[in-house]
Design brief:
With 442 residues, this protein is of the alpha/beta class. The protein has helices at residues 2-13, 20-29, 32-52, 62-68, 90-105, 108-111, 113-128, 142-152, 169-182, 198-208, 231-240, 260-263, 272-275, 320-336, 338-356, 386-397, 424-439; strands at residues 78-79, 136-139, 160-164, 185-189, 213-219, 244-248, 267-270, 283-287, 362-364, 376-381, 399-400, 402-404, 413-417. The protein is globular. Bound molecules: pyridoxal-5'-phosphate.
Length: 442
Amino acid sequence: MKQDLFLNSLTRKGVSRRNFVKYLLAGSSLSISALSKLNASIYQSIKDLNQDFIRDEAPDGVYWDAIRDKFLFQDGLIMMNNGTVGPMPKPVFNTLIKTFKVQATSPVHMYTYIPRKKEEIRSRIARFINATPDEVAVVRNTTEGMNFVANGLDLKPGDEVLLSSMEHPGGTHPWKIKEERFGIKVTQVPIGLPPKSADEFVGSFEKAITPQTKVISVSHTVYISGLISPLKELCRMAHEKGLLVAADSAHGIGMLDLDMKELGIDFFATSPYKWLGAPTGVGVFYVRKQVQDQLWPTITTSGWNQPTARKYETLGQRADALVIALGEAVNFQNYIGKSRIEKRIKSLAGYFKQELKKITGARLHTSEDLYLSGGLTAFSIEGVEPRAIVDYVRQKYNIVIRTVGSREKGTYGCRVSTHYYIHHREIDMLLEGIKKIAGQRT
Ligand SMILES: Cc1ncc(COP(=O)(O)O)c(C=O)c1O
């Protein structure tokens, strides 16, 4: 009865951001079925919202404010760094607690009911990225997926792998260690800041290919510049030459309306805790069916020789609550709609770019082309220390952004993530802060 009263008050009023700890404690005292009811009521309210905005493709304002209420942000925090770690919406958090509760109260369900549930989630993820369930492995993060690619392919000494010049360490070092241990050759191909077109990007790789090249391994979502690499065009070119293509798409899932078949990619690793709202500790690793016989599993126990991507998931006992919460994160985004989310993210980024360009000395490191960019925007302002901007906007407005890149390589700047829950007025505050610091230039 007491729980029902609590549940009603939460669902009626929404949870005050000040009461996060209360929510957490109350959540852990709720029964498993009460937590499920709570999620159902949150989803019902999103369905109602969708009805209210049925004719709006990418509604602004009220719709997104209401969606933001489904999160548990600390009071006043304006999180514009999903590129590092993003927040979990309430249903994901509730499901996490609920599943840990299953282990605490009835561990037997962890090896009876939960494995079946995980298979359902694999299918849900597959639908979400337009793959088949046999092509999806739930791993721990992008770094793990990229290591699986580098470790699992049979390459001979002298075989070459092309990377871009702007890879994340998680996409570079798996190949670097293979170079040291097995004598493969790793070549970094310079890409623009930003490239002017998909052709320019693909052309740089095409020119760099030698008879020894076997693999192209690139960031899909370039963490330094916010570039969305044109994978479809890259794969088309590479496949014509018999090469394999791997993508580090750490930021892709939850930011972009992903479609593996459309991209034609062979290996694709992504981290759903950035933009999808999943907890840290789970990642998605896609391996195209036709190339699975070329990729050995790296971590093994029984099951490593099965003919599906499940063979890349033989990692021993896992924190399955994370996997179940990942399934909930997919649900949450499905209620809003992948394409609506991508549009919203890109329109916020577009607004930020448009206004930023008006500041004297501003330089966008991210393309303005909607095909070559997403929710990450990197920039610098001539004569301004990026760190000064990051620190000022945090202290003045509680806006979280970050510095990125390297001074020596000319890529140093600030990076802003504009997820769907960010409001235009918050972008205006950020711009005001940037102008203030830029105005102090001597
Ligand atoms: C482009 C890119 N690749 C790889 C990673 C590593 O991600 P994870 O730590 O989830 O493996 C990141 C992390 O920010 C990234 O931005």
